Fold this protein.
Amino acid sequence: MAARTGTVQRIIDAATQPVADLGLELVDVEMVREGKDVILRLFIDKAGGVSMDDCTRVTHLVDPLIDTQLNIHEHDFLEVSSPGLERPLKTERDLARYQGEWVELSRYKAVDGRKKIEGRLAPCTTDAIGLELEDGTLLSIPRQEVARIKRMIHF
C-alpha cells in the first residue's frame, strides 16, 4: 500500500475535518496524470452512499482551501466522487469498518501460484491482514506482502 506524496498529505490534513463537518468522510486523495492533464481526485463517503449534492458541497468547500489556503496549483482539474462499492481499503479505519465484508487481497508476489485471494476480512494486526476463506480457513498475511485490498461484491 503506497505512501502518499507531500502535496496529497497536505490536502488530507487540511480537508479532513472540514469535510467531516459536512457529515462526510474524506476517504482518499490522489493526484494522477491522465494524458496531458493532472487530475486531483478526492474520494468521499458516508453511510448510505454519496450523492451528487455531497460532491458539489465538497467541491465548493475544498477548491478555495486548496487554491488559496494551501496554495496548491499542480493540478488541471479537481474531481470529487464516491470511491464506489468495490473501493480499495487503505486505512486502519477502513479495515475495522469493513471487517466481515468480502474483499479481494492482492499480493506483490504470487504465493502458491496465486497473487489474489478472496475472502471475508478478519481481524487485522499491525503486522498482518486477517482473511477468512469461503471454506472457513483463516489466513494471516504479512502486511509487507499486501499490495492492495478492495471490497468486492460476493454472490
About this structure: The longest strand covers residues 25-34. Strands lie at 25-34, 37-45, 77-81, 102-111, 114-122, 128-132, 138-142, 146-151. Residues 38 and 53 are 24 Å apart (CA to CA).
